[in-house]
Amino acid sequence: GFTMEFGALIRKMINGVIAGDGDTVASCFIPDGVYHDVFYGAFEGRDRIAEMIRDYFHRDGCNFRWDTHNPVSDGTTGYVRYVFSYESKLEAAKGKRTMFEGVAVVSLENGLMKTYTEVANSAPGLQRIGFEPERLARFVEKQGAELAARDESEGHL
C-alpha cells in the first residue's frame, strides 16, 4: 500500500543523496517540488534539488549513513523517522563524524514528493563536530525564527 510505496520512494531519495546523485534525488520530486533541508534551506524545482546534493551535501560531508525507521503514509502525507551521520569536510571539523536524528514530513502528489521537510534535533550533532557556542546559538535562533514564522505557529507566542 501507500506506506510501502512511500518507504521505497524515501529509500530511493536517500540512496541518491548518499551516492551524490542529484538527478536521482530530483526524480523523486514533482517538477516544482521543494526540498527543505534543515541546514541549507529550501530548494525548489528538480534542477535546484540536484544542485543542492552536488554542490552542498558532498562539499561539506562524506561517508554518509542515513537509516530510516517506521515510514508511514496515507498517500498524500508521509512521515519517516531517521538517524543520519556523516564525516565533516568543513575546515574546522575535518574528519570528525557526527550524527543527528529527525523526522521527515513529506507531502505527496502523484506518487512523488511535493515537499520534503525535516524536523531535526541538530544542535547536538553540530556541537559534536565542534561548532562554537556563538555559531550554535545563531543556528538555534534561526530554527526558532523559522518555526515562529509558520502559519501553524500563529497564536502560540
Describe the protein's architecture and organization.
With 157 residues, the protein is α+β, with helices and mostly antiparallel strands. The chain is 39% helix and 39% strand. The chain contains five helices and six strands, in the order ααββαββββαα. The protein has helices at 2-19, 22-27, 46-60, 123-128, 133-149, and strands at residues 29-37, 41-44, 61-73, 77-88, 97-109, 112-121. A six-stranded mixed β-sheet has the order 2-1-6-5-4-3. A hairpin with a 3-residue loop joins strand 1 and strand 2. The longest helix has 18 residues, at 2-19. The termini are far apart. The mean pLDDT is 94.
Q: What's the tally of helices?
A: 5
Which strand order spans the largest sheet, edge to edge or round the barrel?
2-1-6-5-4-3
β-sheet strand percentage: 35-45%
The sequence of SSEs as H and E is HHEEHEEEEHH
Total strands? 6
What is the helix content? 25-40%
Instruction: Note the overall shape.
Output: globular
Please identify the structural class as seen in this structure. Answer: alpha+beta
Gyration radius over CA: 16 Å
The oligomeric state is single chain
Gap between N and C termini? 39 Å
Low-confidence stretches: none
Mean pLDDT: 94
Mind describing the biggest β-sheet? 6 strands, mixed
